[in-house]
Amino acid sequence: MSVTQQNKSDLILYAALEQFAENGFHSSPVSQLASLAGVGVGSIYRYFKDKDELIHAVFTMVDDALQKAITASMNPELSGRSEFIQLVTSLIQYLDKHPQEFKFLEQYYSSPYGADKKRAKFLCEGRGGSSNPFVDLFFGNKAKSLKDLPLPLYLAMTFGPIIFLLRDSLSGLVTLDEALIQQTAEASWNAIKAEN
Amino acid sequence: MSVTQQNKSDLILYAALEQFAENGFHSSPVSQLASLAGVGVGSIYRYFKDKDELIHAVFTMVDDALQKAITASMNPELSGRSEFIQLVTSLIQYLDKHPQEFKFLEQYYSSPYGADKKRAKFLCEGRGGSSNPFVDLFFGNKAKSLKDLPLPLYLAMTFGPIIFLLRDSLSGLVTLDEALIQQTAEASWNAIKAEN
Amino acid sequence: MSVTQQNKSDLILYAALEQFAENGFHSSPVSQLASLAGVGVGSIYRYFKDKDELIHAVFTMVDDALQKAITASMNPELSGRSEFIQLVTSLIQYLDKHPQEFKFLEQYYSSPYGADKKRAKFLCEGRGGSSNPFVDLFFGNKAKSLKDLPLPLYLAMTFGPIIFLLRDSLSGLVTLDEALIQQTAEASWNAIKAEN
Amino acid sequence: MSVTQQNKSDLILYAALEQFAENGFHSSPVSQLASLAGVGVGSIYRYFKDKDELIHAVFTMVDDALQKAITASMNPELSGRSEFIQLVTSLIQYLDKHPQEFKFLEQYYSSPYGADKKRAKFLCEGRGGSSNPFVDLFFGNKAKSLKDLPLPLYLAMTFGPIIFLLRDSLSGLVTLDEALIQQTAEASWNAIKAEN
DNA sequence: AATGAATGAGACTTCATTCAT
DNA sequence: TATGAATGAAGTCTCATTCAT
Questions:
Q1: Could you read off the pLDDT of D11-27 as tens digits, one per residue?
Q2: D17 burial via Cβ count (<10 Å: 0-12, 13-18, 19+)
Q3: C-alpha to C-alpha distance for D38 and D30, rounded to whole angstroms
Q4: Would you place residue D187 in the very low, low, confident or very high pLDDT band (cuts 50, 70, 90)?
Q5: Which region holds residue B121: left if phi is over 0, alpha if psi is between -120 and 50, else beta?
Q6: Is the separation of the CB atoms in D95 and D161 below 8 Å?
Q7: Which of B34, B40, B45 is nearest to B12 (CA)?
Q8: Which of D26, D190, D196 to mutate to test the interface with C (most CBs of C within 10 A)?
Q9: Which tens digits make up the pLDDT trace of B166-186?
Q10: Which chain C residues touch D161 with a CB distance below 8 Å?
Q11: Domain B1-48: which topology?
Q12: Mean pLDDT across the stretch B96-124?
């Protein structure tokens, strides 16, 4: 029950996330994951069939947390523009504050492991059939304030810049302060909003 | 003399590009590169000090070709908006027609190999000190039609969506026809153009 | 529990000593050491960082045993001459009975591996700062029966002939029986003793 | 005829001697020998069947030069003691001035390559059946000033200390000045001379 | 005769996975 | 249930040797 008495499986997942994010899948020997998690190598294979399954499990954990964070920041009472800016802002902030999660996702999606998940992308078409806040916004009632574009373009204009900026932030090329985040969200909105 | 009688070094580079793009650096044993290139393993080490140097050499080859393609599509007589759309269009088209190059670059930049090149990003700050067409546009005379934003944001709004869409195109989620490309370029422009 | 159930690390060390002595460092592939030791290749790397470390470990093992053998043969009650002859005799006998150790040491000292240990030479300046029986004899109270010579010359006149003879013995050119050993020890003593 | 127009075979031999002495047989790739010699790799194989044959050829060259140097320093008119000291002195001086030759010989004799030549030792039983100055001295007319010892012991007391000191000299542990050489030669003589 | 590009056997080393304890 | 010693397949790289030019 206590913090130190976590599920052994969770200990492994957190250790794996850290290692994978810092060193990449291929530079993270299972033995290293084990010692970082404070468990024996063999134990990893009790909870996960093999290294691949562990990688997918880390993805599921990270993705769930991200979905939850975004969903939590929804506010149905806001206007389309405000809600969009709010969602973008919280997504950027969450990932900027959780660089390991971001690095892991980047690596996962650009590797053979993420091939299957390509359709699901960062936030779109969340697992379990539940739609996601962004897609709701693009096609819900508030969509009348948007230009009529294909979904992939909405997604590209929304997530593309975010990912790009987060990479720069990780590299230390840019600091994602509130002003910049605000500018980013507004620019994205301008890209997809209906002409007035 | 014949077309098939290329430089052995080039044979290796092309084979490596193909393998790396399809399988990733870590799933492309040197022995496999060699047999795809139709040369002996040892020959690869005649031309490249080690696998790392080969990877960097492939990058240089791919990056040079990309730079050339973009530069060739410049047209100084166009207005800011038209030039921007033209540049974005040719970048998308080039990378969509050269998926191996795109996959390679994605992988390269998100790996330790590309760490040094982070600053230089896809097109920005091209090697050799020569500035690049996009940066010229963001800060040249035509920049008065743009909102005043920090460079990283210009770059994010321009390249972020492109990269995102190209990934979707590779996954077969979207077809980058002329209409979609035009919509993309215009949306990006709207994101960064000065309010009228 | 049984005698054959030694430390796996020792199994490897003994196998390595044998191979190195017979075939030399460069003609003893790790795979061969492994199969001679009856372990998997990977196991060697569990106990030793790399082949170099294994080589140094074999040296330490061999050198320790040699030091112990010589020290055990000391007898402080003997006169200078008698003690010298006793030490030389036991050194020759030990190395003649342990040809693999001798071959290993020869090879080790004349290779880059032994470069650091050059100063320490066969017996001189034993590790751990403790002086060695020979040096004690050259400079202790009994030294008055010796000519006044620089240390390197004492060492050369003592160990040089021993090494030379041991090589001949290994080659089968000579048999190191008691008589020859006695003659050798006396000749060495005559080389360094004070004129009467 | 000119110095630069040497036999190509000699160019290779000298380059090989240098490389082997400095880096050892196993760290001297044939390609490196070739470039040091200023010839193509293939040329080495015109003059020497393979690397082993080259190594043996270098030995022959070095050994011949050494024999010649010693023989040249003979002086039949000297007394036994004086001649011995003269021979030892010139041997030490020659090898101390030719460290590459010494290093090569050390390496050669302590490797599988020198296994066959074990009988011939440094100077003893020179090739071609010609006896050598030291052996002549040990068993010729002047031998009456010597104790009656087996040949291997004469050799051991003569060459053992020399080799030992030369190693120390190479390591920089000792400087072989005239005084030390004289002391060495005299000590060796005392080891084998007849009791007076 | 001379060259050096090309080759591939073989060396060292890593690491995912198993299994006896 | 948990462990970690043991394994060997597979990867990177070197270098002696060949052979077409």
A1: 999 999 999 999 999 99
A2: buried
A3: 12
A4: very high
A5: left
A6: no
A7: B34
A8: D190
A9: 999 999 999 999 999 999 999
A10: 153, 156-157, 160-161, 191
A11: Arc Repressor Mutant, subunit A (1.10.10)
A12: 83
| pLDDT per position as a tens digit, B62-90 | 999 999 999 998 888 888 899 999 999 99
Which residue in chain C has the smallest CA separation from D110? Answer: C107
Distance of CA D192 to the CA centre of its chain: 22
Show residues of chain D in contact with C26, CB under 8 Å. Answer: 25-26
Q: What distance in Å separates the CA atoms of residue D186 and residue C191, rounded to the nearest whole number? A: 8
Question: Rounded to an integer, what distance in angstroms lies between the CA atom of residue D3 and that of residue D16?
Answer: 18
Which residue has 């190191």 as its token pair?
A: C176
d(CA A57, CA A61) in angstroms, rounded, equals 6
> Can you tell me the distance from the alpha carbon of B40 to that of B4, in angstroms, rounded to the nearest whole number?
17
For residues A16 and A27, give the distance between their C-alpha atoms in angstroms, rounded to a whole number: 11
Q: Which pLDDT tens digit goes with each residue over B114-169? A: 877 765 655 555 455 557 788 888 887 776 789 999 999 999 999 999 999 999 99
Phi, psi of C193 (to 5 degrees): -70, 155
Tokens of A31: 């033995």
What angle do the packed helices C178-192 and D178-192 form, to 10 degrees?
140
CATH code at D59-192: 1.10.357.10
Output the CA angle A51-A36-A172, nearest 5 degrees.
90
Nearest Cα to Cα of residue B146 among B91, B79, B92, B94 = B79
Contact between residue C90 and residue C182 where contact means Cβ atoms under 8 Å apart? no
Closest CA to D163 of D112, D121, D134: D121
In angstroms, the CA D179 to CA C95 distance is 33
Question: In which residue are the tokens 């920049």 written?
Answer: B143
Query: What is the SS3 assignment for B193?
Result: strand
Q: Which two tokens mark C148?
A: 């006044």
- pTM for this one? 0.91
Nucleotide nearest to C9 (CA to C1'): F5
By CB neighbour count within 10 A (0-12 exposed, 13-18 middle, 19+ buried), where does D76 fall?
A: exposed
Please state, as a whole number, how many other Cβ atoms lie within 10 Å of the Cβ of residue C194. Answer: 11
The rounded distance, in Å, linking the Cα atoms of C192 and C147 is: 6
pLDDT greater than 60 at residue D75: yes
Strand F close to A9 by CB, under 7 A: no
Q: Do B164 and A163 touch (CB under 8 A)?
A: yes
- Where are chain B's structural domains? 1-48, 59-192
Residue-level pLDDT at C121: 57
DSSP, collapsed to helix, strand or coil, labels residue C176 as coil
Handedness of CA C14, C16, C22, C24 (dihedral sign): negative
